[in-house]
Amino acid sequence: MAAMTGPGADGTGARQGSSHLTASTDLDATPNQLPLAAVLDASLQRRKAAAVSSVALDGAMRDFTLVLSEGAGGGCRWAVGETQGRRGSMEDAHVVCLDTDGDGSGRTALFAVFDGHSGGEVSTYCARHIVEVLQAAPSYAAGDMPKALKEAFLELDRRMQDPHSRPELAAYRQMAKADKRSSQQAAADRDKHGRDEPDVRNGDQQHGSAGEQEEQERELEVPAPRGEVLPPSKHAVKRYGMVDESGRYVGPGAGSTAAVAVVRGNQLAVAHAGDSRVVLCENGVAQALTQDHKPDIPAERDRIYQAGLFVMQQPGGVARVGGSLAMSRAMGDVKFKAPELPPDQQAVTAAPDTTQVRLGGQAAAPGDPAAANHPRLLVVACDGLWDVMDRQQVCNFLELQLSSHGGDLRAAVRGLVHEALRHDSAASAPATDNVTVLLVQLP
User: Fold this and answer.
1) For position 9, what pLDDT does the model report?
2) Is residue 143 in a domain?
3) Where is region (Disordered) located (predicted)?
4) Res 135 pLDDT > 60
5) What average pLDDT score do residues 243-256 get?
6) Any residues with CB less than 8 A from the CB of 349 and at least 6 apart, and which?
7) Rounded mean pLDDT of the chain?
């Protein structure tokens, strides 16, 4: 729903561009096209670009607008690729903050992906507030990052259930609806004009003059800039979210996964809720730092039943909480949470699993020829990627892309997202979900 680059995220200067299964074109660095670091309203201009695509309702691959950004700082290089893909709306959000301490030291960096469902407002809210909430967590100053991340997850979830957050969440939902209408209108306009897009999978070449091609690219890649997030009407706020029997607001009906990685020195701390994943690639080996929270996992299923709900699974289908939600932990989703239960006992809890890894000793040393072939990579991505490629496939693909493009992270991310959109194998069909991939090259 919203992309954020937090304080210091631009580092050496981020570039943004977009692609539709061909080489992307950098946008000019004008205020109405590129987001300002740490300014949510401006960053939504980039999200607007991701929401404009002409994807046929039957899923035919015509064009997918891919929004790319990159930067460096604190010894890290990063790149993000995100696309609405075949979905009718974009509900993912991501955060890159290379100065999470907020003191200019660049000692702590945060990388996060939030994958929304039933709306994008919860993922947007989490992206907007994760850094400030983490900084305020009691265990953050004490240096216990896994515990601080858990405190931050639960505080974000609690805040969204507070009536004071209702207007902000309602505004994000209102904005998402406007983006969806704009996306649908843009697709309809292109269809009305009968503009045929080249099939790059079959090697078709674009025809027409350079001016015509340039205008076509501009239409695809640089939509009209959006303004600030408008406050919702009182009526929209009153209608937003879930209410109890007395009509009191209790929280959002929408929800989101959360996958957050924090690097401080040689320590990597990870927290996650849901099925977005964090993978560490060292020496060509992909290490899973998260495990999907699915309702059919015994410990998850037991908690769900103890909370008074049930797990339903149709033959050949996926297990779902209450017959609807395909994950057992998430931010928001208040309809699956009972006010009388503590957070970690909810059927669908926001309490994350956490882990901490000491970096060093496994990756090739700088100057070693193996370092160029096997860079230390951190991948944070939503299930739109992991549904079609496993972690070792992703690691192998990224290393090949980096080797082919002189270590260009942006090119590697572009190629990976394109691969997810068109990946077709005996194990999986191409991605039908939003796809967001955040790639970090660690020291």
Assistant:
1) 53
2) yes
3) 1-28, 171-235
4) yes
5) 95
6) 273, 303, 328, 329, 337, 343
7) 78
φ, ψ at 166 (rounded to 5°)? -60, -45
Tally of structural domains, the chain: 1
Specify if 405 maps to a domain. yes
Query: pLDDT per residue over 14-70, tens digit each?
Result: 333 322 222 333 333 332 222 222 223 333 334 333 333 333 334 444 567 788 899
Q: Is residue 390 scored above 70 in pLDDT?
A: yes
pLDDT: which is higher, 329 or 53: 329
Q: Tell me the residue range of the domain where 378 lies.
A: 3-254+356-441
Identify the CATH number of the domain in which residue 222 sits. Answer: 3.60.40
C-alpha span between 156 and 122 (Å, rounded): 10
Q: Is the distance from CB of 421 to CB of 436 less than 8 angstroms?
A: no
H or E element in which residue 158 lies: helix 145-160
The DSSP-derived string for 33-62 is: TSPPTT-HHHHHHHHHHHH-----TT---S
Q: Would 303 be classed as within a structural domain?
A: no
Give the C-alpha separation, 440 to 376, whole Å: 8
Check the CA dihedral 66-282-397-381 and report its sign.
Answer: negative
- Tell me the mean pLDDT in the region 163-177: 91
pLDDT digits (tens, 9 = 90+) for 104-126: 999 999 999 999 999 999 999 99
Question: Is the CB of residue 82 less than 8 Å from the CB of residue 385?
Answer: no
If you count them, how many residues does the chain have?
443
- Could you tell me the pTM of the whole model? 0.79
Directed axis angle between helix 145-160 and helix 121-136, to 10°?
130
Please check whether residue 7 lies inside any domain of the structure.
Answer: yes
| DSSP assignments along 371-401, one per residue | HHHS--EEEEE-HHHHTTS-HHHHHHHHHHH
By CB neighbour count within 10 A (0-12 exposed, 13-18 middle, 19+ buried), where does 29 fall?
exposed
